[in-house]
Amino acid sequence: MSADDTDAAADDPTGSSAAPDASGTPKIRIENVSKRFGRILALDDVSIDVRDNEIYALIGDNGAGKSTLMNIVSGVHEPSSGQVYLDGRPINFSNHSDARKAGIETVYQDLALMNDLDIASNIFMGSFPTKRYGPLSVIDWDETYRRAEEIMHDALGRDVDVRTEVEFFSGGQRQLVAVGRSLAFDPEVIVLDEPTSALSIDATRLVHETIRRLRDQGMTIVIVSHSIESVLELADRIGVLYQGRLVATLDPEETDIVEITELMTTGTREGAELDD
């Protein structure tokens, strides 16, 4: 990265001023958001633009605030100050259901899958298609399997038997089932918490292919991660958090592991603090 680029990033760590489509309305706008837990300041005046139809990676060391920010976007926490916007409209979520209704789905690191149930049941658990027999409402299994196949085959591009129990799948395949479950709610934004954590190289490649496929279908993806290698390969832009502050937004093609590591561990680039 050139000296001019470094100076620009220092003035505007969101990176929005240099973006070619910065004049458009961001899909998600996080504006001056702070979050306190008692005396702990977990987020300090963070502003981020996530563009429509991009893969935005939020990266940082443990305790940097990335999970807290993810939970604010997902409706788990409310900001202590600041505002979040979706398509230019202010949003105020009280819980995860509010975020889901607005079109934001989150896939957490633990996946929360039931091993003894098949793919289709895991995808629609709690929201099965139903049909009525007189006064009774029962699960429509034909529709459940049809829609599960549509999600796994068409949206995710995976030729799997949706009647197969999840316990027989690899880590990467299980991650895709969790993503498939999020697609059942027809989201516009998917937040992925450490999507390639502890996965093999082949499984990571499978997950990356799927994320790119979703972006190409018009989805906006936010990835929360501490894996520099993974986000350099996958993301369109990378936001770096350090001790609750956004210290830089980077183009993966114009940065490297050394620079990102320095930002993650010190909040600075080559000894020069980026913002105050």
Topology of this structure?
Layout: H1 3-11, E1 28-37, E2 40-50, E3 55-60, H2 66-73, E4 81-86, E5 89-91, H3 96-102, E6 104-107, H4 119-124, E7 130-133, E8 136-139, H5 141-155, H6 171-183, E9 189-193, H7 201-216, E10 220-225, H8 228-234, E11 237-242, E12 245-250, H9 257-266, E13 268-269, E14 272-273
Parallel strand pairs: 3-10, 3-11, 6-9, 9-10
Antiparallel strand pairs: 1-2, 1-4, 4-5, 7-8, 11-12, 13-14
Helix pairs in contact: 5-6, 6-7
Please state the structural category.
alpha/beta
Write down the secondary-structure element order. Answer: HEEEHEEHEHEEHHEHEHEEHEE
What fraction strand?
25-35%
Mind summarizing the main beta sheet? 6 strands, mixed
Radius of gyration: 20 Å
DSSP E strands, number: 14
Overall 3D geometry? Answer: globular
Distance between the termini: 21 Å
Total helical elements: 9
Average pLDDT score: 87
Helical residue percent?
A: 25-40%
Spatial order of strands in the largest sheet: 6-9-10-3-11-12
pLDDT < 50 stretches? 1-12, 14-22, 271-276
Describe the structure.
With about 280 residues, the protein is of the alpha/beta class. It is built from 9 helices and 14 strands. The protein has helices at about 5-10, 65-75, 95-100, 120-125, 140-155, 170-185, 200-215, 230-235, 255-265; strands at about 30-35, 40-50, 55-60, 80-85, 90, 105, 130-135, 135-140, 190-195, 220-225, 235-240, 245-250, 270, 270-275. It has a 6-stranded mixed beta sheet with strand order 6-9-10-3-11-12, sandwiched between helices. A 4-stranded antiparallel beta sheet has the order 2-1-4-5, covered by helices on one side. The chain has a two-stranded antiparallel ribbon with strand order 7-8. A hairpin with a 2-residue loop joins strand 1 (about 30-35) and strand 2 (about 40-50). Helix 5 (about 140-155) crosses helix 6 (about 170-185) and helix 6 runs parallel beside helix 7 (about 200-215).
